[in-house]
């Protein structure tokens, strides 16, 4: 899937946590870490239940129970959560030691137990149809991540144009889009793509934006940010990462510490 209608998508996808492989937005910014790497993130961040910047020590994930009937999607979401959890744990320990702490001072991690929906930070659902936004169908899109405030109000427009924070995100997968992909691909290839999409969308929910400079990171995607000038985004099939990389993890670390 190549982003052929970039102008059209750029209007709808001026959403910080939104369509998989959409264009970037004016709300994105680049910062340079202590390691000299440049990271593209959104201006806001996820909040906890008290309205403070989330510490990421216990990111509660909720998977729609109806997904039990769709075992493959349930499986890839669980795998993506486990991948993020595992790698966030490693980066927590590494950065704690680097910053002079004897224990895991940065206790990043996700849980996906019997979480009450109203207390969840990231919610996973799916539609049997194509992704729809404001009654418009997008058959080229695999998944969408939408931010909300604590009252359930969508923050799509606000986060797109300002450094707005969000309480939780809802990630919706298009079963129909994946079914279409599966027609010409093996079961293993489809499973891998679904996992890449799930991991990528979790990155959006945490506040990471698209970066078209490197197809070896989980946040590889079409970006109009000047730092990506000269780089061509070629679609999710060309992304080689299936788990969050050090680059993705360090972006999360710098965003929340």
Output the keywords.
257 residues, 6 helices, alpha/beta
Task: Outline the structure in words.
It is built from 6 helices and 9 strands, in the order H-E-E-E-H-E-E-E-E-E-H-E-H-H-H. Strand 1 and strand 2 (38-42) form a beta hairpin. The protein is an alpha/beta fold. The chain has helices at 6-12, 71-98, 156-161, 175-183, 187-206, 246-256, and strands at 28-32, 38-42, 59-63, 110-111, 122-127, 131-133, 136-138, 143-148, 168-174. The protein has a 5-stranded mixed sheet with strand order 4-3-5-9-8. A two-stranded antiparallel sheet has the order 1-2. Strands 6-7 form a two-stranded antiparallel ribbon. The N and C termini lie far apart (35 Å). The radius of gyration is 17 Å and the shape is globular. 41% of the residues are buried.
Blueprint (SSEs and pairs):
Elements (H helix, E strand, L loop, with lengths): L5 H7 L15 E5 L5 E5 L16 E5 L7 H28 L11 E2 L10 E6 L3 E3 L2 E3 L4 E6 L7 H6 L6 E7 H9 L3 H20 L39 H11 L1
Parallel strand pairs: 3-4, 3-5, 5-9
Antiparallel strand pairs: 1-2, 6-7, 8-9
Helix pairs in contact: 2-5, 2-6
Short summary:
This protein is of the alpha/beta class and 257 residues long.
* Number of beta strands: 9
The succession of helices and strands, N to C, reads: HEEEHEEEEEHEHHH
Number of helices: 6
Strand content: 15-25%
Please state how the strands of the largest beta sheet are arranged side by side: 4-3-5-9-8
The Rg value, from CA coordinates, equals 17 Å
Spans with pLDDT under 50 lasting ≥5 residues?
A: 1-26
* Shape type: globular
Mean pLDDT across the residues is 83
* Sheet with the most strands, sense and barrel status: 5 strands, mixed
Give the termini separation.
35 Å
Relative helix content: 25-40%
Structural class: alpha/beta
């Amino acid at each position: 899937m190549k982003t052929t209608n970039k102008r059209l998508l750029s209007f709808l996808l001026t959403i910080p946590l939104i369509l998989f492989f959409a264009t970037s937005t004016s709300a994105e910014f680049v910062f340079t870490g202590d390691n000299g790497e440049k990271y593209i993130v959104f201006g806001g961040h996820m909040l906890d239940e008290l309205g403070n910047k989330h510490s990421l020590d216990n990111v509660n994930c909720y998977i729609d129970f109806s997904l039990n009937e769709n075992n493959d999607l349930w499986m890839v979401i669980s795998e993506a959560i486990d991948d993020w959890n595992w790698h966030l744990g490693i980066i927590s320990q590494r950065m704690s030691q680097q910053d002079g702490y004897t224990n895991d001072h940065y206790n990043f991690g996700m849980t996906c137990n019997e979480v009450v929906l109203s207390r969840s930070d990231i919610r996973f659902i799916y539609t049997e149809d194509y992704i729809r936004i404001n009654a418009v169908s997008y058959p080229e899109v695999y998944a969408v991540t939408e931010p909300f405030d604590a009252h359930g109000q969508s923050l799509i427009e606000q986060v797109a144009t300002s450094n707005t924070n969000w309480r939780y995100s809802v990630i919706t997968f298009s079963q129909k889009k994946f079914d279409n992909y599966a027609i010409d691909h093996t079961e293993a290839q489809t499973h891998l793509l679904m996992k890449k999409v799930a991991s990528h969308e979790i990155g959006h929910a945490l506040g990471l934006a698209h970066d078209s400079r490197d197809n070896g990171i989980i946040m590889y995607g079409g970006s109009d940010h000047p730092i990506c000038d000269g780089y061509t985004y070629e679609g999710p099939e060309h992304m080689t990462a299936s788990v969050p990389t050090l680059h993705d993890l360090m972006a999360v670390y710098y965003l929340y510490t």
